[in-house]
Amino acid sequence: MTALAETLWIRKGTGLHPRTVEGTVPLLKFDSLEQTGIVEHCFTTREGGVSEGIYSSLNLSFSRGDRKEAVFENYRRVAEAMHTTPDRIVCSCQTHTTNVEQVGSELGGNGITRDNAFADVDGLVTNEKGVVLATFYADCVPLYFVDPVHRAIGLSHSGWRGTVAKMGRATLDKMKEAFGTEPKDVVCAIGPCICKDCYEVGTEVAEEFAAAFPGQKEQILTSKEDGKYLLDLWLANKQVLMDAGVPENQIEITNLCTCCNSRYLFSHRGLNGKRGNLGAFLYLK
Description:
single chain, alpha+beta, 15 strands, 23% helix
């Protein structure tokens, strides 16, 4: 285990944590996605970049006040570590929707070397080799999808709004429409996000989840004495994927909490909004 992996606080209980690959940039990777043999992927940490201050050091957001030159260098470093280039990366434009877009090489560099062509797009899918899908995080849930049968992939951002609206199903539906993907064939990973112990929500959010997950509300929501609730986004997203037809043994869940690890992973709650963005990346070899 690497020094970073030893430092990260891994939540106890079910679920697997990504292994850390050291290099110029430490990258978190899922064994199950690696074992498909057809993709490169990662989830970034705060380490290995050139940004300073509250963005230290691997910030991947151009819109939070960091120097553009620093952010671009951070992308260059991540791309190099993934054996690709920034002009092959296609970035999302996240606004907590369940909108999923099919993308190809004609959009390479979207949001990095060229203006972002999207508005309100939280998920991306492709079946083109070398097109790098990218989505961004600071407590919300990264969802990775690999269809080894049709050689297609998807990557989606699922905050509480995306989760209650079933972003996982929306992504699988888009992959089926575009590539013929069957959920039973898909290998999925649910990445680092805020854990249940750290994620307190109010009655309005809790009621939406209780309505959306009537059979699992006791597992997904824990009530507190002050009228607040603790929300398990990992479990909720796993249930969405299983309900959509992905076998349970093909879903790998991290147990790394962004908020518990805000020294090493950007967390909106853990850092009181003074932060950069982490990135999830995925492409077909």
